[in-house]
């Protein structure tokens, strides 16, 4: 099973909009970088939210193994 994508998790939870995700994806494609850091730098999520979602993402990966 593929690891759940951070952007999709945030979108599904309502913490970001599709437009915000699209903007972050465009930046990632153009400049590279990690989605979570891009979203924090844009001010769409807090560092605390990022840490919480990364922990949740890791938990889902471990459970799927």
Overall description:
The structure is a single chain. This protein is mainly alpha-helical. The chain has one domain. Helix content is 74%, strand content 0%. The protein contains four helices and no strands. It has helices at 6-13, 18-31, 35-42, 47-64. Helix 2 packs across helix 3 (35-42).
Report the end-to-end length measured between terminal Cα atoms: 8 Å
Helix count equals: 4
Q: How many domain regions?
A: 1
Strand content: under 5%
Number of strands: 0
Low-confidence sequence ranges: none
Order of helices and strands: HHHH
Tell me the overall shape. globular
Main sheet properties: none
Oligomer: single chain
Roughly what is the average pLDDT, rounded to an integer? 94
From the alpha-carbon coordinates, what is the Rg to the nearest angstrom? 12 Å
Helix content: over 70%
Q: Could you say which structural class the secondary elements and strand pairing correspond to?
A: mainly alpha
Give descriptors for this structure.
globular; 4 helices; mainly alpha; about 60 residues; single chain
Can you describe this structure in just a few lines?
With 65 residues, this protein is mainly alpha-helical. It contains 4 helices and no strands. Helices cover 74% and strands 0% of the residues.
Layout of helices and strands, plus pairs?
Blueprint: H1 6-13, H2 18-31, H3 35-42, H4 47-64
